[in-house]
Specification:
The complex is a heterodimer of chains A (about 120) and B (about 110).
Chain A: E1 5-7, E2 10-13, E3 19-24, E4 31-37, E5 44-50, E6 53-56, E7 65-68, E8 75-79, E9 88-95, E10 108-109, E11 113-117
Parallel strand pairs in A: 2-11
Antiparallel strand pairs in A: 1-3, 3-8, 4-5, 4-9, 5-6, 7-8, 9-10, 9-11
Chain B: E1 4-7, E2 10-14, E3 19-25, E4 32-38, E5 44-51, E6 56-59, E7 62-67, E8 72-77, E9 86-94, E10 97-100, E11 104-109
Parallel strand pairs in B: 2-11
Antiparallel strand pairs in B: 1-3, 3-8, 4-5, 4-9, 6-7, 7-8, 9-10, 9-11
The chains are: A mainly beta (about 120), B mainly beta (about 110).
Amino acid sequence: GAGVSQTPSNKVTEKGKYVELRCDPISGHTALYWYRQSLGQGPEFLIYFQGTGAADDSGLPNDRFFAVRPEGSVSTLKIQRTERGDSAVYLCASSLSLGGPSSYNEQFFGPGTRLTVL
Amino acid sequence: KQEVTQIPAALSVPEGENLVLNCSFTDSAIYNLQWFRQDPGKGLTSLLLIQSSQREQTSGRLNASLDKSSGRSTLYIAASQPGDSATYLCAVAHAGKSTFGDGTTLTVKP
């Protein structure tokens, strides 16, 4: 089946603008995760969803960042008043669930959205 | 706060060598540990996942071990090939929140 997909693959915006990044998880996966990755570093946790609800949003850097998953499938990461420091690759992952057999927790990643704020 | 360290940051080996990548973490209260591979400009590919109650997992030429009490994991790659060249990342999870190391960049020379 299809893997995790993310759109757009690249986004260039100007400082102060609003952007939305979309993630389509693997069909049937109930858990969805957002990370961001800067060059030469490992991914940094932002938020994860179990179903429609944000189970842990402790990684969101400030209130300019918000994520939704209204129907428990597609998720959108929203960034208001973008700043140059927001430039990074934003990665989305999904897993079958959280808890249960180990295979259910394995995270599968999308290709990422490269965000550049000028 | 969980911290994950991967040493070395970079490693270069000749083709055919066996090698070990290291991952250490500060908080042993983890749910699982996952090893990933990342090619330049690409997303992450899952290699192996070890639940906290497990000691090791194997897939083909890869073997990952976990010693939760000492906060360490290793990824063993047997008979390395040029196609194994990539950055290898480990991530420890507590519930749904994963903490990643910064990776080890492996170069396998033909």
